[in-house]
């Protein structure tokens, strides 16, 4: 009985750690940009660009509900 309880406890802990690891990779994040902390401010880098935008070229203001970040680093209306 103790072996079965230990098995289920280890299984639960293992599944929890896998979930935490996958979540840390951003798999469940549906926002179209990454938040990159950079000293005293945060840059917002778009995800889906053919040529990646550099962090320093990205805006430091979070886009609003009807805005998006273009691949040129501009916050534009949708």
What does this structure look like?
This protein has 78 residues and is of the alpha+beta class. The protein is 29% helix and 23% strand. The chain is built from 1 helix and 4 strands. A two-stranded antiparallel ribbon has the order 1-2. The chain has a two-stranded antiparallel sheet with strand order 3-4. The chain starts with a helix and ends with a strand. The mean pLDDT is 92.
Work out the radius of gyration: 19 Å
Q: Please, what is the average pLDDT?
A: 92
- Element order, helices and strands? HEEEE
For the report, how would you describe the main beta sheet?
2 strands, antiparallel
Describe the secondary structure blueprint for this structure.
Layout: H1 2-24, E1 33-38, E2 41-46, E3 67-69, E4 75-77
Antiparallel strand pairs: 1-2, 3-4
Quick structural gist:
The chain has 78 residues and is an alpha+beta fold.
Key features?
alpha+beta; two-stranded antiparallel sheet; 29% helix; two-stranded antiparallel ribbon; 23% strand; 78 residues
């Amino acid at each position: 009985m103790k072996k079965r309880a230990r098995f289920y406890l280890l299984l639960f802990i293992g599944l929890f750690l896998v979930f935490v690891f996958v979540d840390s990779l951003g798999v469940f994040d549906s926002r179209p940009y990454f938040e990159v902390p950079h000293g005293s401010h945060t840059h917002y880098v778009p995800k889906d660009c053919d040529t990646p935008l550099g962090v320093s070229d990205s805006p430091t203001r979070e886009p609003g509900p009807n805005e998006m970040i273009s691949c040129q680093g501009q916050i534009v209306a949708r």
